[in-house]
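Second opinion, please. Pick holes in both lines of this record:
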Amino acid sequence: MARLPTAVPLASLMLAAALVTARGETVSPQPICEPHGPGVRVCYSVDLDDLRKSGSTTLRGWIEGMPRPSAIRVHNSSPGVVHLKGGEDRILHTACDRHSRFRIGIRAVGPGRPQLVVRPYDPSPRREASRIAAEIAPLLAAIERQFQEASNRLPVPSPPAAVAELLDTTEKSLLAVLSYQELAPLRDSVQMEFRQQRAASLKEAARAWVEPGGFPFRSSRVVPAAFTAGSSRRSHILTAATPPPASSGSALDRIKRFLHSLTEMAENDELTVDVCVASVPANGMSFSMYPRYYRTQRYSTQTENLLPHVYRGLYAYEGNQGFRRPFGCHPADNDEAPACTMLDLLNRREQEIIHCDLSRRTCFMQVDPAHQASCGQPAP
């Protein structure tokens, strides 16, 4: 579904640089302000000159006018450049007078220009998801473009070390962009996808034909072989030709498609879905789902009901019927190959619901148009 254009000021993605007078004197940086309704603005300033010289500085923010927003979101999309004291994604409550001003320490950790967002937090899950989508879409598109350019520069077949480095760098950039609290399940999906493609790339490298010196065969050629059994003449064999370019099923190509799907999802404002939760043979089961590494972000309901505005990604889950022992899939943090199947809402197909089978004590994704259409409606 196409998204209507959402206005996000360019200033909200960058920091204000300190002004320099004609005499070379550094003065306070110009504040960046974003309107929030009639007569209300959210403003902030950061002294980049101070950050560059001392390695640390302070983000100073304030709210002008009334009624002030109930909360402000401060987000850092460049954790490889700076760190924010208290976390890279913070939601500050600003409804009362004494919280109309805020200060956050910033520490430099690497080269580059910080990418920060300081804006009102929208308590509507749907509207906040749209704001997040608009903010990350250009950053995801840039990562996709950089990955395409870097993979095109790799030789064929690609050295395993170069492929591993490209995958590591891309994953790190992705996780930085997706560091919003609500995107924890999407980060879990990213980590699983890259873990699978790293393993696949190693298998592909093991199958590649290489010469003893480690160089790929460049052409078919005839070379002397060992003496043929029962003959005093040397036989000749045709060596393997140059391996063909990476197929559409290679690990790098799968990552390209994965990155493109993430970019399209953000550009089309599809970070969230409404999903039905049903159970058989009876309704009324307690159900909750949560990101594996951020368990406080829970979605809970009773079957059969609709869970609205659920962020896409990978979820652990738990179910309980009456006083029976709970069941579910909640792998340990260090379990990279869990025996149970987590719920995948990133690749959720149309009309797919979360179907829980009480007799088998498991839940899974299943296409069920009838349940999806009637979910949450009172029985006739």
